[in-house]
């Protein structure tokens, strides 16, 4: 794909727990459309249904063309692991991040697994 196709991708998006999303919003990544219906973040807690997480993941990775990087807490990604593992697009880049209560586990990271497979590890 040409760089022209990705020139409008200028937002970070986040799917994560309240602390992670709040921290990133305070850092300035938040974006809400004028009508207030489209956001670039989703706060996930124990009551959030898997279908809602998958719906927002689909929106950020397929439907929207303004997102360059999607950050997702690894423990949230675990809830939709089959969907995350199937994702292979370059844009938006998908990064699994740790949270305050859930440390990062490299063995679960779908991107790291793919890199290890490429190098035969």
TrEMBL record:
Its main location: membrane. It is a peripheral membrane protein. GO terms for molecular function: proton-transporting ATPase activity, rotational mechanism. The keyword Cytoplasm does not apply. Keywords: Hydrogen ion transport, Ion transport, Membrane, Transport, Vacuole. GO terms for cellular component: fungal-type vacuole membrane; proton-transporting V-type ATPase, V1 domain. It holds the Pfam family ATP-synt_F. It comes from the Eukaryota. The keyword Chaperone does not apply. It is found in: Vacuole membrane. SUPFAM superfamilies: AtpF-like (SSF159468). Belongs to the V-ATPase F subunit family. V-ATPase is a heteromultimeric enzyme composed of a peripheral catalytic V1 complex (components A to H) attached to an integral membrane V0 proton pore complex (components: a, c, c', c'', d, e, f and VOA1). PANTHER family: V-TYPE PROTON ATPASE SUBUNIT F (PTHR13861:SF2), VACUOLAR ATP SYNTHASE SUBUNIT F (PTHR13861). Subunit of the V1 complex of vacuolar(H+)-ATPase (V-ATPase), a multisubunit enzyme composed of a peripheral complex (V1) that hydrolyzes ATP and a membrane integral complex (V0) that translocates protons. V-ATPase is responsible for acidifying and maintaining the pH of intracellular compartments. This is V-type proton ATPase subunit F. It comes from Antrodiella citrinella.
């Amino acid at each position: 794909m040409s760089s022209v196709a990705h020139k409008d991708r200028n937002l970070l998006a986040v799917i994560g727990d309240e602390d992670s999303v709040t921290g990133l919003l305070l850092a300035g990544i938040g974006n809400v459309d004028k009508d207030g219906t489209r956001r670039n973040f989703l706060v996930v807690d124990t009551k959030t249904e898997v279908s809602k997480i998958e719906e927002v993941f689909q929106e950020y990775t397929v439907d929207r063309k303004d997102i360059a990087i999607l950050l997702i807490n690894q423990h949230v990604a675990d809830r939709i692991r089959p969907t995350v593992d199937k994702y292979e697009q370059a844009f938006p880049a998908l990064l699994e991040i740790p949270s305050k209560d859930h440390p990062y586990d490299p063995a679960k990271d779908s991107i790291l697994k793919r890199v290890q497979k490429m190098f035969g590890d």
